[in-house]
Amino acid sequence: xxxxxxxxxxxxxxxxxxxxxxxxxxxxxxxxxxxxxxxxxxxxxxxxxxxxxxxxxxxxxxxxxxxxxxxxxxxxxxxxxxxxxxxxxxxxxxxxxxxxxxxxxxxxxxxxxxxxxxxxxxxxxxxxxxxxxxxxxxxxxxxxxxxxxxxxxxxxxxxxxxxxxxxxxxxxxxxxxxxxxxxxxxxxxxxxxxxxxxxxxxxxxxxxxxxxxxxxxxxxxxxxxxxxxxxxxxxxxx
Length: 238
Hints:
This protein has helices at residues 15-26, 38-50, 65-79, 103-131, 152-172, 190-195, 212-217, and strands at 6-10, 30-35, 55-59, 84-87, 134-139, 177-183, 229-231. The protein is α/β, with parallel strands linked by helices. Strands 3-2-1-4-5-6-7 form a seven-stranded parallel sheet, with helices on both faces. Helix 3 runs parallel beside helix 4 (103-131).
């Protein structure tokens, strides 16, 4: 399925990113994992290796184009082109009406949630284009295609990320590169707890329960599938 492929997962130290990194490792992929905290990356790197996968685990901020380029170059020199990119790194930002947003908070969230994804796409695309294949999976949200008040820059950034997905899918289809979006839905994560502090965590699934659609989209089983949006919760393999 994904055995022998190289997958880059951003925001890999916790939550969905960690679950994805470990799921791909157990499925036989090589992992390139990053997040901003060096201590976290040391831990997740050890977990990936314990799962039986070769990996590069580095502290890298997706808003730092130089750091992302260096990470991709290291992986390509070791294994060749990145086969799969999962743009998972994201920040919630303040949940306030748009009129009340602080400009610095606005720019910071947009930089991670949208520009960071574009930076990662730009870094892996040359190698994918040379190889004539690749799967880019952008992690979106329920608020990315459904208007919802008081979700501020997070919602706006996810709408924009879906626009990036559709345009990139059109532009790269002729080179065998597929670009799709996945909404994981509510999960038992720190971000979810921040957004819904009164919610019972047991009422939503753990991140490991929503990884199957990502594994499928990364595989040849999804050949020809591009420019689509998937709901991870309740997804069934075709």
